């Protein structure tokens, strides 16, 4: 993990969700965006990452909301290999929005999960895989790239570009039929 953070920093890419790192606030097209990230999955590097403690998450979101026009939260959470979020994911996502988050994005399931509108805010529970070596099933070879267009705190538009992972973890754009099947997982149909 230390090596990854170092490589990111050498390439002017911010690492978020790491203990002792400040939350990231960036000005983009005249608006300030705060980016926060948390882990809710047991990992070997738990000592280095910001784990979900709802009281801390709420406080950090509220503080970020005072510094930025929009707060975007990313979570590593939930159960692997399922299209439906857990009750805990839903609880955390709703608490984040109640605390002031404007967009909640998640990953870890290795499958594309549903999205939800909560209090006029978007929650994307899992984007599936993108560059990953889980080629043993079709579901673990699927993912979406989320494009989120915001103006301040308002999410103007969003779309998902479907991908299929092939040949040593290489994503390619999904065909129209493949994309249709993948996107059904987002709407729960």
What's the SSE blueprint?
Layout: H1 2-10, E1 24-28, E2 31-39, H2 54-67, E3 70-76, H3 87-99, E4 103-107, E5 115-118, E6 121-124, E7 142-151, E8 154-166, E9 170-173, H4 176-187
Parallel strand pairs: 2-3, 3-4, 4-6
Antiparallel strand pairs: 1-2, 5-6, 7-8, 8-9
Mean pLDDT: 89
Give the percentage of residues in beta strands: 25-35%
The largest sheet is: 6 strands, mixed
Number of strands: 9
CATH architecture group name: 4-Layer Sandwich
CATH superfamily: Metallo-dependent phosphatases
Q: What distance lies between the first and last C-alpha atoms, to the nearest angstrom?
A: 38 Å
Please tell me how large the radius of gyration is. Answer: 16 Å
Q: Give the helix/strand class.
A: alpha/beta
- Tell me, what's the shape? globular
Count of discrete alpha- or pi-helical segments spanning 4 or more residues: 4
CATH topology: Purple Acid Phosphatase, chain A, domain 2
Q: How much helix, percentage-wise, in residues?
A: 25-40%
Would you write up a description of this structure?
The chain is of the alpha/beta class. The protein has one domain (2-187): Metallo-dependent phosphatases (Purple Acid Phosphatase, chain A, domain 2, 4-Layer Sandwich). It is built from four helices and nine strands, in the order H-E-E-H-E-H-E-E-E-E-E-E-H. The strands form two sheets. The chain has a six-stranded mixed sheet with strand order 1-2-3-4-6-5, with helices on one face. Strands 7-8-9 form a three-stranded antiparallel sheet. A hairpin with a 2-residue loop joins strand 1 (24-28) and strand 2 (31-39). Helix 2 runs parallel beside helix 3. The longest helix is centred in the N-terminal third of the chain and has 14 residues, at 54-67. The radius of gyration is 16 Å and the shape is globular. The relative contact order is 0.12.
